[in-house]
Give the backbone structure.
Amino acid sequence: MIDGVVGVILWTEGVERLVAFYRDVLELTPHSVRPDFVAFSLGDVRLSIGRHDSVRGRVSDPFRIMVNLGTTNIHQLAEELQQKGVSFLRLPELEHWGGHLATLLDPDG
């Protein structure tokens, strides 16, 4: 029986580019670093970036895969990320259920 999510892997041909974005721009701390695979620890979940020989180019559909990250101040974070040059598909907006959501693009789209 499945009782939780332990990790998400973003496969790419641009490991260095994506790792730099998640480490330097989003300020996530690497948990494990190997030449073609880096895992970031987010509590009990790992967000990993790895090279895969069957993956080429940027994502053609940015809505296909979304990684939901949490913050205590979405508006401030969105402003800081925009100042760092991060592109957003959607700036923070209030949802019908009472929370706020925003959608940003990583370097793979």
